[in-house]
Specification:
Blueprint: E1 3-6, E2 21-24, E3 30-37, E4 43-44, H1 77-80, E5 89-95, H2 105-124, H3 126-138, H4 148-158, H5 163-171, H6 175-227, H7 230-246, H8 252-267, H9 273-285, H10 300-310, H11 315-331, E6 338-342, H12 349-360, E7 364-368, H13 376-379, H14 392-400, E8 406-410, H15 423-431, E9 439-440, E10 447-448, E11 454-459, H16 467-472, E12 474-477, H17 483-501, E13 508-511, H18 513-523, H19 530-555, E14 591-593, E15 625-627, E16 641-644, H20 649-653, E17 672-678, E18 684-695, E19 700-703, H21 708-723, E20 742-747, H22 761-773, E21 781-783, E22 786-787, E23 793-794, H23 799-809, E24 813-817, H24 821-827, H25 830-833, E25 837-841, H26 844-851, H27 856-864
Parallel strand pairs: 6-11, 6-12, 7-8, 8-11, 13-16, 19-20, 21-24, 24-25
Antiparallel strand pairs: 1-2, 3-4, 3-5, 9-10, 14-15, 17-18, 18-20, 22-23
Bound molecules: adenosine-5'-diphosphate (ADP).
Length: 869
């Protein structure tokens, strides 16, 4: 036994139950068992040979390295002690290696081959190498590499082939045969070793590659971390999203989506474009104010105070808001509602929206859908689009940060028609209280509850609002203001606001109420007050300019200037020294002093080195001074007193836009009637209609920038008059031709204003009748109404504005279509109607009866033109 090592590798104590051992056995000599003597019995012959470098189970007695060379079985001394034990004893026969020639070619070749294979294996298998060295050291025998038989034995001894193969080597008594067999097992060992080493190499290289990658990645991480880039940033980002989400009350479904997206983001390379998309999405998802809202303030007194503070009148709107609050107070919650404020421009629709938000203590967001054609503006883009964004309402929620803002949607009547998809229906989906508690934005892709949003829409015209949308809205008409209302608005709201905005807050500058009246009458006739506001703003601006120009720089020195007029307590009290900085530097607002000081002033804001020899500042542009000091408002000397009266109003706002209410100082000739028109800017107007006839060929000419519809009205009117010429007493007999040799010209003055709409029908017809019957029309009568060819009078719009204009013009009688009666009685304020008599008509005959009442022609008409016919 040249070496033994534990095969199981576990414990080494012999105590172990089934412990295996690997022993390397090297043969000394060959024996053959001829007889087995059982313990105490007779001998049996068995062929058992030695040399097995295989595992040998300890319990089985190792074949004893044959004791004595003696032939006898009769207990030689050395083994006799065994007889007392149950040990088998064998008789053996010695085998002798056949003689051979050491220099035999074959033998030598085998030997060198075996040696070379040894080397090969030793290179591949370090364990094998150890065994060889071990063996060579331990070996008592002479150099195995010189003896072919021993070499063969050795080769077999260190090989681990099958037992049978090894046995063959043992049994081979001819040396060349033994060498061949040994070489065979050795070769197998080599192949084994080669295979083993290849496998291990493969595995090694795989592991090495992975390790290399891992190593590189770790380094990359380290580098990025050093640079404060990416990975760390992603972690922070995810942390941020988590924090944000934790502060929100996301619904279950949304939370799930959030978690999924977050997990997705975690797995993505930060540079990947998809990561960007996910990040943006998460950003939006966590910026929608899930569950966050401003506490509701249902105090009626507070709301009333706020609404009155901001707006005069508008009682409908205000009481609607109070209703809303009362319901909210009782129920504890309010469902979102759509309020639609309809009315002409400048009547405060938008600004009341703002004060509703203030009254309710909610956030305010405004957007306009005028001309909007893209559904995506409302519903958002799908997330896959480049630059995709959610729709407006989601943006609104993000901006205001609460779930219950007041959202003002301007110009719903001007919403466009999309090429793909209809924005109006998208808007409907968003507004409809029935379905907007789970509004699905394309980008967000999770239902968002909009039911707590209070929607306020504004529109100029209800006709163009898509019907389904209009259906769901609660329309509050904000009709224009009458003169008295405008006067109050001007004195209580617009005036003080404008004064403040012009820096004249504490100055004694007064806009006389009579001047305001003139403004309203001759400058700003629109039903809204925006134009009036503009004029009042202009007045105060002009006043400010005049004030500064008149008092000059002595009173209002530039901050750098040293002078302080004794009379005026200039706000920035600057000691009279050039070097001193202008104002105390408490404020740090940035402003750029680039304006040139007035030319009459010798020293300005520009520092001394920027002045030329004459002390005048060098021209601007050389160097702009930069400062962080905020300018203080100037105090206006108490000596200033300005009155703006009707007399000096012209100096502020120029000559009146509207010269007078009546065109005709004297009663006009026959052929002139008075119509009522509605102009595009939301104002009504009293419009005279002039008709004249002249020799010609029976043509009709129309001037005054008339639209197609008015031209048609004129044609209808003329046809009606022609067909009723005999009844009207224009012709002598029924069959008489009329107007065959004359042309008719109709003109509506103020030709610069375009006139549309059918409402002038009755007035044109009246003008024709007046012309042909040569009967004057009372200029105190005005009329409006569309006519049909057979003489029906049809209803028209814009009555409040028209009546307002009539009121201003001192009209005493208005002839209006009967179908407009309810409208007038309901919606037009009493104050405007006082002093005006309303005559409601269904047929043009009634118009004519009314207009020409008491005139000679009506005597005849009693027979020919009775209203019943
Ligand atoms: P709209 O949206 O109807 O076109 P705005 O809301 O922009 O008009 O109103 C124009 C201006 O008129 C605003 O500055 C507003 O403050 C003012 N205004 C309108 N109506 C009133 C009112 N009833 N009381 C006070 N100011 C008003």
């Amino acid at each position: 036994i040249t070496s033994v090592f534990s095969a199981s590798g576990s414990g080494e104590g012999g105590e172990g139950k089934e412990e295996g051992l690997t022993a390397v056995l090297y043969p000394h000599r060959r024996i053959k068992i001829t007889e087995l003597v059982k313990a105490g019995g007779q001998a049996k012959v068995e062929e058992v040979k030695e040399e097995e470098p295989q595992t040998v189970e300890p319990p089985t007695p190792p074949p004893s390295p044959a004791p004595e060379p003696a032939e006898s079985t009769a207990g030689p001394v050395q083994t006799s002690f065994l007889h007392n034990h149950a040990v088998s004893i064998v008789n053996v026969e010695n085998l002798v290696t056949l003689p051979y020639n050491k220099d035999d070619q074959y033998i030598r070749a085998f030997m060198s081959e075996i040696v070379s294979v040894f080397k090969d294996i030793a290179q591949l298998n370090p364990l094998f190498r150890d065994q060889i060295t071990n063996f060579s050291i331990n070996q008592v025998a002479s150099n195995v590499f010189d003896e072919p038989d021993k070499l063969a034995d050795f080769a077999a001894a260190v090989s681990t082939d099958e037992v049978q193969e090894l046995q063959y080597v043992l049994e081979a008594l001819a040396v060349d045969d033994r060498l061949r067999k040994a070489l065979l097992v050795l070769k197998k060992e080599l192949i084994n070793a080669q295979l083993q080493s290849k496998l291990s190499r493969d595995v090694d290289s795989k592991i090495a590659k992975r390790q290399w990658e891992y190593y590189l990645l770790e380094q990359l991480k380290g580098i990025k971390k050093e640079l404060g880039m990416e990975n760390d940033g992603k972690d922070k980002l995810i942390e941020k999203f988590r924090e944000r989400a934790a502060a929100l009350k996301m619904p279950e479904g949304v939370r799930k989506v959030f978690d999924e997206e977050l997990a997705k983001l975690q797995g993505l390379e930060p540079a990947a474009s998809e990561a960007n998309v996910t990040r943006n999405y998460l950003d939006w998802l966590t910026q929608i104010p899930w569950g966050r809202h401003t506490p509701e303030n249902y105090s009626l007194t507070h709301a009333e105070r706020v609404l009155d503070e901001d707006h005069y009148g508008l009682s409908d709107v205000k009481s609607r808001i109070l209703e809303f609050l009362a319901v909210g107070k009782l129920r504890g919650t309010v469902q979102g509602k759509i309020i639609c404020l309809a009315g002409p421009p400048g009547v405060g629709k938008t600004s009341i929206g703002k004060s509703i938000a203030r009254a309710l203590g909610r956030q305010f967001f405004r957007f306009s859908v005028g001309g909007l054609t893209d559904v995506a503006e409302i519903k958002g883009h799908r997330r896959t689009y480049v630059g995709a964004l959610p729709g407006k309402i989601i943006q609104a929620l993000k901006r205001v940060g609460t779930e219950n803002p007041v959202v003002l949607i301007d110009e719903v009547d001007k919403i466009g028609r999309g090429i793909n998809g209809d924005p109006a229906s998208a808007l409907l989906e968003m507004l409809d209280p029935e379905q907007n508690n789970s509004f699905l934005d394309h980008y967000m892709d999770v239902p968002v509850d909009l039911s707590r949003v209070l929607f306020v829409c504004t529109a100029n015209n209800l006709d163009t609002i898509p019907a389904p949308l209009l259906d769901r809205m609660e329309v509050l008409e904000v009709s224009g203001y009458v003169s008295e209302e405008k006067a109050v608005i001007a004195s209580r709201y617009l005036g003080p606001q404008a004064k403040d905005a012009s820096g004249l807050k504490d100055a004694d500058i007064e806009l006389d109420p009579s001047a305001v009246d003139v403004l309203i009458k001759y400058y700003c006739r629109e039903s809204g007050v925006r134009n009036l506001k503009k004029h009042i703003d202009k007045i105060y601006r002009k006043a400010a300019l005049k004030l500064v120009q008149d008092l000059g720089e002595e009173t209002f020195p530039e901050p750098k200037e040293a002078e302080v007029t004794p009379s005026a307590g200039a706000a920035s009290e600057v000691p009279a020294s050039e070097e001193k900085p202008a104002a105390p530097a408490e404020e740090t607002h940035e402003s750029i002093e680039s304006q040139e000081p007035p030319p009459n002033e010798s020293a300005g804001t520009i520092e001394s080195e920027h002045k030329d020899s004459s002390g005048k500042p060098t021209h601007e542009g050389e160097r702009k001074e930069v400062t962080t000091q905020e300018r203080k408002p100037m105090e206006i000397p108490a000596s200033v007193h300005v009155r703006i009266t009707p007399e000096n109003l012209k100096d502020y706002v120029g000559p009146p836009v509207y010269q007078k209410d009546r065109m005709y100082a004297q009663p006009p000739p026959p052929g002139v009637s008075t119509g009522l028109g509605y102009l595009g800017n939301g104002s009504g107007a009293v419009m005279p209609i002039e008709a004249m006839s002249m020799p010609g060929k029976g043509g009709l000419q129309l001037t005054g920038k008339l639209g197609e519809v008015i031209r048609e009205s004129a044609n209808i009117g003329l046809s009606w008059v022609k067909s009723h010429a005999y009844e009207l007493g224009i012709t002598k007999s029924e069959g008489e031709q009329f107007l065959t040799d004359r042309d008719v010209h109709v003109h509506m003055p103020e030709g610069s204003i375009g006139k549309e709409g059918p409402s002038a029908g009755t007035a044109i017809l009246t003008a024709f009748v007046s012309l042909f019957t040569k009967t004057k029309v009372d200029p105190d009568i005005a009329m409006t109404g569309e006519i049909s060819l057979v003489g029906q009078v049809l209803p028209v719009g814009g009555l409040k504005e028209k009546i307002l204009a009539a009121h201003r013009a001192g009209i005493k009688t208005i002839i209006a279509p009967a179908a407009n009666r309810a409208d007038i009685e309901e919606n037009v304020p009493e104050s405007v109607k006082t002093g005006i008599r309303f005559v409601y008509v269904e047929n043009v005959r009634e118009v004519l009866q009314e207009v020409f009442k008491g005139q000679a022609v009506t005597e005849r008409w009693k027979d020919t033109l009775s209203t019943s016919s």
